[in-house]
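Progress note, sequence design subtask.
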C-alpha cells in the first residue's frame, strides 16, 4: 500500500513459477480489456494490477512516475525481491518509471504496444498508416485523434468510441466487441500525467534498465511504427514487430503474441 490506498490486484493462472506483474494501459483502464492475454497464464502465472483511477482501486493516479511505487508495494506483498513486469500501452510508462527508480526490484520488462514519441521525439507516423487503410471509420478515428483533447466526460467517451477503429489492423465484429471492454474516465486519464518530473526522459534513458522486450504491431495507428522502432533501440530492447497487427496483439494475432510473450517470459 502506498499513499494510504490499497492497490487491488487479481491473480491469473497457477503454478510454482513466480508471477509476472501486469500493468494495464488506458491510462487507468479497467484491466477487463486484457482478456486472458492469449492464454499465457497456462505457462506463467500473472498478478494484474488495478491502478489508481480504475473501479476496483478507486481514487486518482498520483501520476505514472509516482505510481511506480505501487508496483513495489505489490512486489512486497507477494514477497518478491525482483519482478518481471508485463505492461501495455500507457502502462509501459509506469513500468519504465519503476525500472528507473527501483532498478533492484525489476528483473525484466515486457512492453506491449508502447506509446513512444514522449521518449524518442520521433515524429508520429500514425496518420500515414491511417491513410493507407482508406476506411471511413478509420478516417473518422484519425480526425478525432488530431482534434483537441476533450474537456468533458461526455466528449471523452465519445472520442473513445470514434477512435476505437484506430486501435486495430482490422475493424470486424471481433475488434468491435473487444473495443468496449474495460472503461476509463477523463479525470483518471488526466491525473495519470500529473507531477511528472521534467527530467523523466533523461532519468529513464540514463538508468541501468533490465532486460527488455517490446512487442508491437506494424499497423498500430495509435503508437505509429517508427517511434516504436526508435524506442526499442534507445532502450536496447528486443523488438518483436507483429505483422498485420494493431494495438491489441493478444486479440488480433493471439498465436504470434503468445509465442513472443512466452518466448520472453520463459527464457
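Output:
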Amino acid at each position: 500500500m502506498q499513499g494510504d490506498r490499497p492497490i487491488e490486484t487479481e491473480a491469473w493462472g497457477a503454478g510454482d513459477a513466480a508471477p509476472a506483474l501486469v500493468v494495464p494501459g488506458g491510462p487507468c483502464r479497467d484491466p477487463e480489456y486484457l482478456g486472458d492475454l492469449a492464454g499465457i497464464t497456462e505457462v506463467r502465472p500473472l498478478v494484474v494490477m488495478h491502478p489508481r483511477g480504475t473501479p476496483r482501486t478507486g481514487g486518482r493516479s498520483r501520476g505514472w512516475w509516482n505510481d511506480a511505487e505501487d508496483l513495489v508495494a505489490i512486489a512486497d506483498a507477494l514477497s518478491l525481491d525482483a519482478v518481471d513486469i508485463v505492461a501495455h500501452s500507457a502502462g509501459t510508462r509506469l513500468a519504465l518509471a519503476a525500472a528507473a527508480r527501483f532498478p533492484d526490484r525489476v528483473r525484466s520488462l515486457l512492453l506491449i504496444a508502447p506509446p513512444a514519441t514522449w521518449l524518442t521525439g520521433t515524429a508520429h507516423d500514425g496518420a500515414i498508416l491511417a491513410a493507407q487503410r482508406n476506411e471511413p471509420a478509420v478516417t473518422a478515428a484519425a480526425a478525432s485523434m488530431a482534434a483537441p483533447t476533450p474537456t468533458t466526460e461526455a466528449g471523452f467517451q465519445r472520442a473513445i468510441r470514434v477512435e476505437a477503429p484506430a486501435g486495430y489492423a482490422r475493424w470486424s465484429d471481433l475488434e468491435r466487441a473487444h473495443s468496449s471492454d474495460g472503461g476509463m474516465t477523463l479525470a483518471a486519464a488526466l491525473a495519470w500525467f500529473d507531477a511528472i518530473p521534467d527530467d523523466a526522459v533523461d532519468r529513464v534513458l540514463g538508468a541501468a534498465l533490465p532486460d527488455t522486450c517490446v512487442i508491437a504491431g506494424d499497423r498500430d495507428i495509435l503508437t505509429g511504427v517508427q517511434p516504436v522502432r526508435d524506442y526499442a533501440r534507445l532502450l536496447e530492447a528486443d523488438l518483436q514487430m507483429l505483422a498485420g497487427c494493431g494495438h491489441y496483439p493478444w486479440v488480433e494475432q493471439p498465436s504470434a503474441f503468445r509465442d513472443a510473450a512466452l518466448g520472453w517470459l520463459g527464457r
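Residues 64-77 form the longest helix (14 residues). Work on this subtask will continue into the next period as scheduled.
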